[in-house]
Amino acid sequence: MSLTLKYFKSGRCCSVPQCKSKYTSQISLFLFPSDKRLQKKWAQALRIGKKITKYMYVCNSHFVKSDFTLSIPDIPVQRRRLKKGVIPSQNQLSPI
Ligand SMILES: [Zn+2]
């Protein structure tokens, strides 16, 4: 019996516990902010107990519509950008 870990080819998925979002056309993944203080706030808001690395992502379901710079309904989810300094407020899966 071999211990095979499941690795996903894309390697990109949401780092929030309980969140199983992987990179698809419906999901947008955001890197943690480079600002350490903001990074800490994100980790607290999302209850991530481990160290934040620059390889960790958070998916769009942890943000509310007003966190994005564009709120035009037609804009594809992947084209959305976060406003500066926003903190994710949604720690459960909810469709945007
Ligand atoms: Zn997520």
What features would you describe in this structure?
This protein is mostly loops. It is built from 1 helix and 2 strands. 21% of the residues are buried. The radius of gyration is 14 Å and the shape is globular. It has one domain (1-96).
Mean pLDDT: 78
Helix content: 10-25%
Work out the radius of gyration: 14 Å
Strand content: 5-15%
Strand order of the largest sheet: 1-2
Instruction: Please provide the count of β strands.
Output: 2
Keywords: Cell cycle, Coiled coil, DNA-binding, Metal-binding, Nucleus, Transcription, Transcription regulation, Zinc, Zinc-finger
GO cellular component, one term: nucleoplasm
Family: Belongs to the THAP1 family.
Pfam families: THAP (PF05485)
Observed structural traits:
globular, single chain, 1 helix, little secondary structure, 6% strand, two-stranded antiparallel ribbon, binds zinc ion, 2 strands, 96 residues, disordered N terminus
Produce a short descriptive summary:
This protein is low in regular secondary structure and 96 residues long. The protein has one helix at residues 36-46, and strands at residues 29-31, 57-59. Mean pLDDT is 78; it is low at 1-9.
Task: Describe the SSE topology.
Elements: E1 29-31, H1 36-46, E2 57-59
Antiparallel strand pairs: 1-2
The structure holds zinc ion.
